[in-house]
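User: Can you recover a sequence for this backbone? Please restate the input before giving your answer.

Assistant: Of course. Working from this structure:
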């Protein structure tokens, strides 16, 4: 959070050097920053995972105590968040993508009894 504040202050100082109002320049800079940050959840939701792949992933996520939703084969925000949490807990890049490694690790999670 403090980094974000420092960036905003720096942007305000930079904006003060141009002809527009400081508030307008700061808003423009903030919008540019937002546009430059990738939307990982949107990319994850657009991935080409079959309902069967998602169902297997949801089953593994449930067994790993990362997913509380229904095992329904639907790739939604709850499933993506669970995949990201699982990836973080396994030292992987938490992008929500069901790549081969993620799928393999999820299939290896022992089923709950």
């Amino acid at each position: 959070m403090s980094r974000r504040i420092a960036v905003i202050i720096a942007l305000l100082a930079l904006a003060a050097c141009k002809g527009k109002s400081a508030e307008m320049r700061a808003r423009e800079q903030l919008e540019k920053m937002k546009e430059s940050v990738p939307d990982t959840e949107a990319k994850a939701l657009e991935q080409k995972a079959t309902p069967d792949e998602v169902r297997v992933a949801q089953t593994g996520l449930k067994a790993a105590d990362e997913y509380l939703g229904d095992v329904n084969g639907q790739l939604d925000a709850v499933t993506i968040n669970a995949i990201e949490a699982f990836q973080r807990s396994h030292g992987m890049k938490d992008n929500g993508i069901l790549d081969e490694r993620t799928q393999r690790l999820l299939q290896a999670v022992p089923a709950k009894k």
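That completes the design. The chain has six helices and no strands.
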